[in-house]
Amino acid sequence: MRSRLILLILLASLATLPAHATPSPSPAPSRAAEAEIATKVSALMARMTLAEKIGQLNFPSLAFPYEDQLATVRQGRIGNMLNVVNPVHLRAFQDAARASRLKIPLLLAIDAIHAFHITFPTPIAWAATWRPQLAQDAAEMIARQTAQNGINLTFAPMIDISRDPRWGRVIEGAGEDPFLGSAFAAARVRGYRKGGLATAAKHFVGYGAPEGGRDYNGAQISLSELFDRYIPPFEAAIDAGTETVMASFNTVNGVPVTANRALITDILKERLGFEGIVMSDFAAIYELINHGVAGDLAEAARKALNAGIDLDMTSKAYERHLESAARAGEVPAAEIDAAVRRVLTVKYRMGLFPDSPGGVRKIPSPVSEASVRATARAVARESFVLLKNDGATLPITPQSGTVALIGAAALATSDHSWYGPAGLKKPETESLRDALESRIGTTQDLLFAEGFADPCGLSFKDKAGALAAARAANLVVLVVAEDCIISGEAASRADLGLTGVQGEMLDALAEVGKPIVLVVETGRPLALTEAVEKVAAVMVAWHPGTEGRTALAEVLTGEVAPSGKLPMTFPRSVGQVPISYGDLPTSRPATGDRYTTGYVDEKPTPLYPFGHGLSYTTFAYSDLKTSVPTMARNGRIEIRVDVTNTGTRAGHEVVQLYTRQLVAARSRPLRELKGFEKVALKPGQRRTVRFTLAAADLAYHDDEGRPVIEPGTFDVFVGGSSTADLEGSFEVTED
Ligand code: BGC
């Protein structure tokens, strides 16, 4: 076996680019402009005092009263601010920068993630559309609203891969898969940038793999896995032009990333060639003391700078300690200069200086609320995932008879998630009840009962009324929601079931005996095993945003067909996590029998696999063909398949391509996503979908993190989920 192993060390960027990566819409300044920027930065730095240089590395959060901060900006000791949202304050800060000796403009950043004013579905829902273009459009709209105000940087996208739904921040990412995650990382960076904001790809790296799913906890990740699974979205974001990268809070293999030179300087800056700014996360330099790698803030400052952290977000470590450390010779001046050079270079590249060689930053024209809403609706429509639909219970039609809509969430007009719209009047939002009433109210009876005292079902309200409505109806639609405060940062869960009394309500409704449609608003995969047994249909609606309930009513009534697919596995129980379709094989492949990989008290398979999602029609796959039976390690292959709409309704299907390398020097995942395309098909319509794979797309990483293309047999699977069973194969040869 070993004799067959031939390592081909490729340029890392070539080997791991997503197949469909496209150039950034805001290309980096030309070579000539770059040279001019370098000259200008050198000239500017030659005029800077040490204190002014350190000011450029200082990144505090707005604190009231802010007159002191304005004065510090005027002194050139604050070069960047976060959380300034009010346009008056934003102008005051840029005016203060203009009044400083060197007039260096500020980076002004907020977490414009899925909302500025109109709230979009959360990013996990963007990924569930499996249409990166929609994510790009969403990001662009959010950026255009945000940039109008004077903000120039967003702390997004979060592109951490995670196989652990206990970790609350899966709501901000694109799920478990590096290929899907890379496509969405690039799309989101392109969108925010197109909309006028610089981006912060975060959190480099391994933040999505905390032990126990506990936020901020450490991760143990081999170099090979780091490059195979966690780094690809960052490469995609860099390739798409992200100006900044945020380091993660946690330890990786025992060393906090904020003090981890091997990760930040050797890998991110040198190996991946990232030339922009690396910032710490909020107070992360200070927290090196909590991690036990620094005795005090001064030591934390030295370690972070040495690791390659250019910007100190809110720790005041650089502000307070770098000047004296540099004067005492404890910190090389070259390290400070290198960080300052990066900050100034990015500010020139962004066009913040009036004499920026690539042109001055242009803020895109204001966008109408109608078009932001239309984009938010388009994203929501395609994000809902129909997990189950026995007996074609959905869509709701006149034949469904009287419908009982139950759940306080059906009255809700705001989202159960973090980072809401920034300080503006709440946009008008239609509730699910109103949206359904206007669609089916004229053809059939829609009964309604809140059932719960709050949208997240923490306690009952008129349970008897809910049961009476169910008895009087032919179909029950129960809306459940993950507890409002338990998705997002610092929101890890040890239990992934329905919260509060929602499970109890479902049990009681199931006793009534009418078919139940369960609508689940959630920020993460939940363990719904017991719940799904009691219902006929399950629709995952995520947290759908301002236009989301209208879109949900459209999909529930069949005006729009559901077309979302899971970007993350839904486990049967918490004990199964971390869980992924892309696990490695084991010595005893999981069959469910004793002495095979699995549990004595749980099935080895997930409740719903990655990539799963139904439509109101059905699709059949046939005629899987590869263009050639073999390809060399510099070759390409085309794989094509026919997909047919075999039902009676129009629909969209996400055609997914997976590969498995059968024999290699390392165990290779049971399946790896290598291509996907969403296609629209009318009833009876057939289409041929083509994927092109380069041998380089099949590379994995060795113990040193070097890409390897190893000759051998690859199985190919094509279908509508990660359990696709239409199978073919091809060989990769040495030459
Ligand atoms: C989060 C970051 C966020 C930052 C600034 C931190 O707690 O981890 O993702 O961008 O705060 O708000």
Structure description:
Helix content is 30%, strand content 18%. The protein starts with 11 loop residues before the first helix and ends with a strand. The chain is built from 21 helices and 26 strands. α7 packs parallel to α8 (178-194). By secondary structure, the protein is an alpha/beta fold. The strands form seven sheets. A six-stranded parallel beta sheet has the order 2-3-4-5-6-9. A six-stranded mixed beta sheet has the order 11-16-15-14-12-13, with helices on both faces. Beta-D-glucopyranose is lined by residues 111, 155, 202, 281-282, 489.
Key features of this structure:
disordered N terminus; 735 residues; Rossmann fold; alpha/beta; Immunoglobulin-like; binds beta-D-glucopyranose; globular; 3 domains; six-stranded mixed beta sheet; six-stranded parallel beta sheet; TIM Barrel
Please specify the SSE layout and strand pairing.
Layout: H1 12-16, H2 31-47, H3 50-56, E1 58-59, H4 67-74, E2 80-82, H5 87-98, E3 107-110, H6 123-128, H7 132-148, E4 153-154, H8 178-194, E5 198-204, H9 223-230, H10 232-239, E6 244-247, E7 251-252, E8 255-256, H11 261-271, E9 277-279, H12 288-291, H13 297-307, E10 312-313, H14 317-327, H15 333-349, H16 369-383, E11 385-389, E12 403-406, H17 432-440, E13 446-449, H18 463-472, E14 475-481, H19 502-512, E15 516-521, H20 529-533, E16 537-540, H21 548-556, E17 619-626, E18 630-632, E19 636-645, E20 651-661, E21 672-681, E22 686-694, E23 700-701, E24 707-708, E25 712-719, E26 726-733
Parallel strand pairs: 1-10, 2-3, 3-4, 4-5, 5-6, 6-9, 12-13, 12-14, 14-15, 15-16, 18-26
Antiparallel strand pairs: 7-8, 11-16, 17-19, 19-22, 20-21, 20-25, 23-24, 25-26
Helix pairs in contact: 2-15, 3-14, 4-5, 7-8, 7-16, 8-10, 13-14, 16-21, 17-21, 18-19
The chain binds beta-D-glucopyranose (BGC).
